[in-house]
């Protein structure tokens, strides 16, 4: 939620900051703003709405200077407006902030008593005033920032400029992500890697409670109390084009089509063919510990939670360990039964989701071990976990998660193979069969993408409805949930995902000629039962869109439309059936003219509770 960026170096700051904001816009797009320092003066431009509005302002009134900060906002305190847009300025101290200052009301009233007047409804503005107030007493920018940050409670990633010491840029982090980019004689700081990727691949990941002071020639990282911290930059392997649309109309469409590559990359280097074994390079957990586990919790939010639900099927089936799946925001408040024999598996694309991070800390606090499935290298969740299985999806920019989801399913499958073998539940022959299926997956995903034209066609007939029902059974129930979530997020059509067997216990009352029911019915043990559900929908006039595979027969007369994916082992079928879910939501959203990559009210990473 919210993206921040800062630049200091020999180049003009505005184009660099603006370009960075474009790549951070997925984090929030209620308003945007930029501040630069030129000849000892701070210049600020802000605009309500998307970044394009700020760009227009800057075309009419350019901002010059070689030091700058920028912000793209997802509103928490104060409605989206120009007045509430960052940067916020108090007496020449200018702040951009991602996070929430929890004690801002108390600080605001104290500052009011000290004579400060406020021009916004935000929590952020108090930081600028606090720094101004402390500067009056100490006369030193850096010391004033340290004192101000020492007083705030909550979460922040901030970048701060001041006209009194125009050769410095200060940034700090507590609870919100912040990465430093080290260029040749220039420095960048931003909420996320892609914002700086076209300038440098050398990144330093700040920890909570760290503060960095940049000048054009130097950078010094310390803790908030001033203790120096030594950090070595890490070279990022993502390339700048991975964060471009690359000719596609939307990032989401590009990311859907990238799935064969993303899945192949997630598998690559992790299979030892001869022994039919899986190798997980950053697992960080002893085999003895994995053998002695009493249970696994899988914790996540949103789409990643849907992946977790599929993971339960895989792990219980092949590793024979009890698995409980929980939504991160629920787990952390229910005193979960974590012991030293418990593994908590957290799943997060961004690695920065506040509730998932807090759940990880809850598990650690109770003495449990944590393994993460994560897409963003060196993200907070990846760093704080005992081990990581990285998905190699590359940067996911579209707010609706697609390639991150299918690669999470692949990571879960790999982990299942690993732990299933360790615990003696998967013999070599079974593993070989499972690995052969896995290797065939990218090609089969490619085949699913060929459904694009058929799905675009049916989207025309479905775009005007107000509600959708998605049904699936077993490991396809999470895919029904995921299909419904994709549709809601980007087309704003109400949709519900249900276990098909539950239809008769309530949702059947909704069925009439207006209601499309997407039924996921691949050839497996429960196909006949799901086919019976399709007949029940048809008998009540409902419109069935069936998703099935080539092997299933006898479904054609039970559906208005049948979307056929290639056959594959049941454990991997959720990957294939996800693809038509993604394409259907995408095409309906495009026809409705919504903002596919940046749907209303949403942000890519939810870094506040
Ligand atoms: C998915 O389309 C969503 N935008 C959202 O549900 C997302 O999956 C969720 O916020 C979790 O994010 P994470 O994987 O980065 O933790």
Quantity of strands, as a count: 26
Bound molecules: 2-deoxy-2-amino glucitol-6-phosphate
In percent terms, what proportion of residues is strand? 15-25%
Distance between the termini: 10 Å
Total number of helical segments? 18
Largest sheet: 8 strands, antiparallel
Helix vs. strand class: alpha/beta
Give a structural overview.
With 609 residues, the protein is α/β, with parallel strands linked by helices. Helices cover 36% and strands 23% of the residues. The protein has 18 helices and 26 strands. The strands form five sheets. An eight-stranded antiparallel sheet has the order 3-2-4-1-10-9-11-14, with helices on one face. It has a six-stranded antiparallel sheet with strand order 5-6-7-8-12-13. Strands 18-17-19-20-21 form a five-stranded parallel sheet, sandwiched between helices. Strand 17, helix 9 and strand 18 form a beta-alpha-beta unit. Helix 3 (104-113) crosses helix 4 (125-138) and helix 16 packs parallel to helix 18 (573-592). It is globular. The relative contact order is 0.09. Bound molecules: 2-deoxy-2-amino glucitol-6-phosphate (AGP). 2-deoxy-2-amino glucitol-6-phosphate is lined by residues 301-304, 348-350, 353, 356, 399-401, 489, 605-606. 2-deoxy-2-amino glucitol-6-phosphate (AGP) is lined by residues 301-304, 348-350, 353, 356, 399-401, 489, 605-606.
